[in-house]
Automatic annotation (TrEMBL):
PANTHER family cross-referenced by the UniProt entry: ADDUCIN, CLASS II ALDOLASE_ADDUCIN N-TERMINAL DOMAIN-CONTAINING PROTEIN
Example of a GO MF term: actin filament binding
Domain of life: Eukaryota
Domain Class II aldolase/adducin N-terminal: residue ranges: 58-242
InterPro entries membership: Aldolase-II_Adducin_sf (IPR051017), Aldolase_II/adducin_N (IPR001303), Aldolase_II/adducin_N_sf (IPR036409)
UniProt similarity note: Belongs to the aldolase class II family. Adducin subfamily.
One cellular-component annotation, GO: cytoskeleton
Pfam families according to UniProt: Aldolase_II
Name of this protein: Putative aldolase class 2 protein CC-1201
Amino acid sequence: MASNVFSAVLRLQFQITTRSVTKYKQALLFPMSVRQKRSLTYGSTTDYAKEANWKCRQDLATAFRGLHYYGMSEGVCTHLTMMAPAMSGDGEVMLMIPHGLHWSQATPSSLLGVSNKGELVEGNGHVQKESNAIHIGLHNARPDAVCVFHLHSPYTTALVMLEEKVFGMFHQTHCRFYNDFVYDTNYEGVATSSKEGERLAKLIGKKSVLFMGNHGVLFTGSTAAIAFDQAYFMERACMMQMIAMQTGKKLRELPEDISKLTYDQTIEELDYYANAHFEGIRAVLLEKDPEFLNR
């Protein structure tokens, strides 16, 4: 009986965070694991902390495998992180993949948990120093950024190698990022200090996309589903733009009012459609490896 009541309370906690019909629809259709809310009070019980930690691990493992499936990984480099309640019930940890593990092999139990000082507190493996350097400062500065995804995805990275800042509102997919991105044009080598994360946090501010000149791209998201969805559609937008640019013709940019309208329409139901996408790729991955979320 007690466990049933506890489960009911957990479900209610997530449902009361929904603020619209769309989000209520999301709560009905998708499991708790894709609706993690960092605003909840973690650590009320060790059992809850362990359960929430595991669900975050499942989501992050799905994101690693899903982005690799889409061809957006780069060897065993670049990094995705997600904040989660510590298994101990005491505070939070930053989840990441151990350096050297291929993204296609990510499982919930393989992921590491790191403290806000960069110390390994959960799991076994090598903590990538670049991941710590970039991500800890960002997570600390942006409590809303449950997830920080840093990629060298081909088309997006190709665009940020150009001297001019060319990403514009050329297509419906571009408009989902209307006025929600900034550029960093001061690449100074491989990040090794937490000061780099602090610098990037100041640059990105409250926006969700940071184009990292001569480097790659970084996304923030309140859930793994949203960060995953944004990363995928940014790569698609950049791919379409690159193809159009190859014609040598001038690209036709959408009017300001239409760009903003399209952004507003997209963001209104972003949670719902991001979760649908995330669950869709999870199903594809489970078909290939039915037990990966249980390992």
